Task: structure prediction
Amino acid sequence: MDLSIEELKRMQSMNIMELKREELANAEDVVIDTTKCVESRIKSYIEQTGNPFAQNVGGYILQIGFMEGTTDLIDDRMILLTKRKTLITV
Result:
């Protein structure tokens, strides 16, 4: 599945209230082969999800976004989120 930049931007900017659960992939069904190169993993992810910015996760729709200009890794952000949710001070 080759998506244009315009199509990706449209998907990224969609209002979460306009997303249709039946059109979204289930996050637990997405399998990424980490032995492949990054380009192959990205292509596989897009093919499996259809919309790389939204998925079904349990009973929720998860809309995914990315911050520009940050050097933080997703692991860094997940640790920060966990600390905030458990009220652990740094």
User: Anything to note?
Assistant: Residues 5-65 form one domain. The chain has a mean pLDDT of 86.
